[in-house]
Structures are given as C-alpha cells and as structure tokens.
C-alpha cells in the first residue's frame, strides 16, 4: 500500500522549520516528513520515495548556507518523468535575486515561491483563527 504524501524539507533554519510545522499541522497531517540539508541526499530520497508514495512536496529553502537551490532544481529536472510527475516544489527564501528567479522558476516542478517573513506571518494568523 502506497503512502499518500511525503514532504521533503530542504532546510537548516529554525524559521523555515516553524513554517513547515505550521503547514504540516494545518494541512498535511497524514504526511511523512524528511528534513534534509544536502541536495544529493534529497534527490536520492525523492527518487526512492516515489516508489512508495503518491505525491511528494518539497519545501526548498534558498537560504541554506553552502546550498544552491538553482543547482538542485537543475539536477531535479534531469530525473525521469515518472519521478518528476509526483513532485511539486515550493521555494521559500528571505529574498529572491533575479538570477535565482531565472534559474529556479524555469522548472515546471516549481509551483510557487514565498518570502519567509510574509509566509510565517500569514500562517501564524491562520493558526490563531
């Protein structure tokens, strides 16, 4: 029996972790969660996880030191279509540089992007209501 959803959190930031917890607790309660801070481990996890889950949501934090979100997206885009069709990527960062936007948002897997402070504020308001 396949699991319904997996979440991959590419992150090492406490604010991003709080955002992820709010999202998961509010909408994705039956999900399995994997927190990673290495793009190679994340790609490997995604490939293996698509065999046992129906959908994978990646929360990609652009603010991880020593991590290039654009490189991750380019490597992801080289994966097989059977893997990519099960994955949706949401990019989260403190600020988006034009080069990041060009490299990252060309990928069909990237569904949306959010600024951390605005997203956290919105989620905290939602949780209180």
Please tell me what the overall shape is: globular
Query: Numbering strands along the chain, what is their spatial order in the largest sheet?
Result: 2-1-3-4-5
Task: Give start-end ranges of low-pLDDT stretches.
Answer: none
Give the CATH level 1 class: Alpha Beta
Question: Any idea how many domains?
Answer: 1
Structural class by helix and strand composition: alpha/beta
* DSSP strand tally: 5
* Helical content band: 40-55%
Rg (CA only): 14 Å
Number of helices: 6
Secondary-structure arrangement, i.e. CATH architecture: 3-Layer(aba) Sandwich
**Cα distance spanning the termini:** 36 Å
The H/E string reads EHEHEHHEHEH
- If you average the pLDDT, what whole number results? 78
Fold-level CATH name: Rossmann fold
Biggest pleated sheet: 5 strands, parallel
CATH homologous superfamily descriptor: Response regulator
The percent range for strand residues is: 25-35%
Which labels suit this protein?
single chain; 129 residues; alpha/beta; Rossmann fold; five-stranded parallel β-sheet; 5 strands
What does the model show?
It is built from six helices and five strands. By secondary structure, it is an alpha/beta fold. The protein has one domain (3-128): Response regulator (Rossmann fold, 3-Layer(aba) Sandwich), CATH 3.40.50. The longest helix is centred in the first third of the chain and has 14 residues, at 14-27. The termini are far apart. The model has no long low-confidence stretch (mean pLDDT 78).
């Amino acid at each position: 029996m396949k699991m319904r959803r997996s979440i991959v959190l590419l992150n090492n930031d406490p604010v991003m972790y709080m955002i992820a917890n709010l999202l998961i607790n509010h909408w994705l309660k039956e999900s399995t969660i994997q927190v990673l801070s290495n793009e190679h481990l994340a790609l490997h996890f995604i490939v293996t996880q698509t065999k046992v889950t129906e959908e994978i949501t990646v929360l990609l934090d652009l603010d991880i030191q020593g991590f290039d979100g654009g490189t991750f997206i380019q490597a992801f885009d080289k994966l097989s279509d059977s893997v990519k069709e099960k994955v949706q990527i949401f990019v989260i960062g403190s600020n988006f540089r034009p080069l990041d936007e060009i490299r990252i948002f060309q990928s069909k897997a990237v569904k949306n992007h959010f600024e951390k402070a605005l997203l956290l504020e919105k989620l905290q308001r939602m949780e209180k209501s």
